[in-house]
Design a protein that fits this description.
With 73 residues, the chain is mainly α. The chain has two domains: 1-31; 39-73, no CATH class. The protein has helices at 5-31, 40-55, 61-72. The radius of gyration is 29 Å and the shape is rod-shaped.
């Protein structure tokens, strides 16, 4: 006759392992640094494109300054 006691011990251990994983994920989520300004690289890239267009003569200096101002606001 089986008393079923050995299966309960393994279930208990797996429960604690799952709980430890969940706690670890929560702590990792809280402690992970977040990006403060993710749009800055996009603005820098856009300004570089504008400068290249100005250098090729596609836009005037006035248009360049206007577009840079629009990107900053």
């Amino acid at each position: 006759m089986m008393d079923g006691g050995s299966g309960m011990g393994i279930t208990w251990i797996f429960g604690w392992i799952i709980l430890a994983i969940i706690i670890g994920l929560v702590i990792r989520g809280i402690c992970t640094p977040r990006k403060r300004n993710s749009s800055q690289p996009e603005k820098d890239e856009a300004v570089e494109i504008l400068k290249k267009r100005y250098a090729r003569g596609e836009i005037s200096e006035k248009e360049l300054e206007h577009m840079k101002h629009e990107l900053e606001s």
